[in-house]
Amino acid sequence: MQRKDLNNTTRPDETTPPDVVGATTVKPVAFEPRGAKSSSGQDRRGRLWLAALGLPAVVLAVLAWFVFTARQLELDIVPAPEKLTIQGGLLTPRVGKAYLLRPGNYRLHAVRAGYHDLETDFQIGADKHQTLKFTMEKLPGVIHLTTHREGQPAEAVNGAAVEVDGDILGQSPLVAVEVPAGRHTLRLQAPLYKPRQAHIDVAGEGQKQTFAFGLEPNWADVSFETNPPGAWIQLAGRRLGQTPLTAPLEAGHHQVQIRREGYKPASTRIHVIAGQALAVPPLALEKVAGRLFVTSRPTGANVTVGDRFYGQTPIDLALPADQEYVVRISEPGYKTAAHRVRVASGGKASVAADLVPRRGRIRFKVSPPEARLLVNGQPYGRVPASLDLLAVRHQIQIVREGYRDYRTQITPRPGYTLELNVKLKRPYETDVPGIIQAPNGYRLKLIQPAAATFRMGSSRREQGRRANETLRDVSLRHPFYMGLKEVTNGQFREFQAAHDAGIFKNYSLNRNEQPATRITWQQAAAFCNWLSQREGLPPAYVSQRGGGLKPAIPLNHGYRLPTEAEWAFCARVDASGSVVKYPWGNKFPPKDRTANLADQSAQTILQLFLQNYKDGHPVAAPPGSLKPNHLGLFDMGGNVSEWCHDYYMIYPYTQGRVVTDPTGPATGRHHVIRGGSWKQASIQTLRAAHRDYQEKKRLDLGFRIGRYVAPNKETD
């Protein structure tokens, strides 16, 4: 039978000796009754002696087994602990510097005064000799820290921010604050003092240490005065006090705010030098403006305060306080109302004017009879013998079936009677050709504005309005021709064969039937002169000093670019004589296929496009691809923007002034550009009032041709 160890593992090298041949024969023993005491007592004593002799042997065997299987562990702990315990084993004897420990997991606990207890788990492996090293961490030191003015220890500076190794520790004075032992970088920052950096060595082990540091002043006294006094002086949102005031301010540049109720906020920038007192020059405060709300009936009247025009009613004005003003409210066709008003500082006042209309009489003589009258697009029925109207400009339209409409503008004069004699013409009746053709086949249409007066520019309240769209009243008296379409690449190449309009995002702009683009104003003007030369007309552009062309003065009847006023009339004045917001009317966006704009077909090549509009052309389309306007002119509201004849300028608005047949400034640097293009989708750029300017070429900038009717009668 085999013997097993404590782990029940079979040990094949320890076996029972084999049976011995001739073993002793077991013989029966006679039964001995219980009463035989002598024999049983001897057996008990024999067993006790055997136990007494075997126990030391067992103990010695266990100790021998422990020594034989234990590992030697040396502990290197710096500094040496005053007390050390090891938990986890039955026996942890120490022999010299080493502990005898069986393999397994243990926990070490070391204690020394002034240090954190060292408590850690460790493991004894299979190696006979093992060494573990530990360092005990000192307890933090307890510091007291104060700050004072440099060189004056008795003058404490409290409230200095204290940073230790970049971490905020608190504000001086610090009392009994624990800091880890060792060397630390200290930074001190107090208002009105220069920052200071230093090093401190903390002994630790719970020891108390005291540190004192001097801070160098970094301020000067600054004096403030205001007129009137009593204003609050503020620095970085913090009130320093009311004027007159002297306050210490830190050295450096400061933006100081001054506020007093009833006065406008003020500010000043000062430079403070440490130790040098500064007196800021007295500040005169301006009273808060008063508010004046002006209304009128009808609304939209012009408001003038003193000699300055402010806008149109209803309007809310800010006016300097405690002054008397004369407010005038005027509207063409009404008597001007004048009011005197005074507005207190921070106060509110209002003026309401009921304007009295001024009327004039118009007498009509119309042939043939039975014609109907429209005034500003509103029907008045059969043309009356006379009509009283407000003394403002009116669009007059006289119509009769079978006759051409008659349109004009007229301004009645109070106290006077104006007479309007009209003879309606049949459609075939004309004084000059309705359509003419240039030598290269380019076609132009006769435009007879009939002394039309209309308003260029846009109201300040119009969405998308730019500052250069000032209102200007213009009268066109000279009949002119306007190109039906924009000039094409093919037509321009007859003049300049090498012309190249280029491409955009892999879309060609260079086909003969597309509009001519990438052309400067000078090139367009030279093209017009070329046509005039071929037809024997005077050139509309002449050479100027330094090279290049400029408009001839006075303007003749040679081929030229349309004036800005002509372009605006053709694009903005609709069939009823009303001025529209867009070349196609007053709605945005237009109906599909009205104008070539940045539509859905251009969404892959343009960042801004009209999501709900389709014209079918991602880039420039052949001129005339879409619908004409009421004058039969194509692409006045899209395709390409167009050069105009005029030099660019911003015109001042002069109420009541009407400019006749304007052609722009006599000199200038840039030229006017009008009209939207295939690249544009914003309300601002697609409005008919939008004005642009430059001299360089553009991929979406072309032109059309115009000219005056010759002084003598023209024939086809």
Please provide a written account of the structure.
The structure is a single chain. The protein is mainly β. The protein is built from five helices and 53 strands. It starts with 36 loop residues before the first helix and ends in an 8-residue tail after the last strand.
Task: Draw up the topology in text.
Elements lengths: L36 H33 L1 E8 L4 E5 L6 E2 L2 E4 L2 E8 L6 E7 L4 E7 L5 E9 L2 E5 L4 E4 L2 E5 L2 E6 L2 E8 L6 E7 L5 E8 L3 E6 L1 E2 L4 E4 L2 E5 L2 E6 L1 E8 L6 E7 L5 E2 L3 E2 L5 E8 L4 E4 L2 E5 L2 E5 L3 E8 L6 E7 L4 E7 L4 E9 L4 E4 L2 E5 L3 E5 L3 E6 L6 E5 L6 E7 L11 E3 L5 E5 L4 E5 L15 E5 L3 E4 L5 H5 L9 E2 L2 E2 L12 H15 L5 E3 L5 E3 L12 H9 L68 E7 L10 E3 L10 E4 L8 H4 L4 E4 L6 E2 L3 E3 L8
Helix content: under 10%
Oligomeric state of the chains?
Answer: single chain
Distance between the termini: 141 Å
Roughly how many Å is the radius of gyration? Answer: 54 Å
What is the topology, as strand order, of the major beta sheet?
Answer: 3-4-1-7
Secondary structure category: mainly beta
The number of strands is 53
Overview features:
four-stranded mixed β-sheet; disordered N terminus; mainly beta; 716 residues; disordered C terminus; elongated; 38% strand; 5 helices; 9% helix
Give me a quick take on this structure.
The protein has 716 residues and is mainly beta. The chain has five helices and 53 strands.
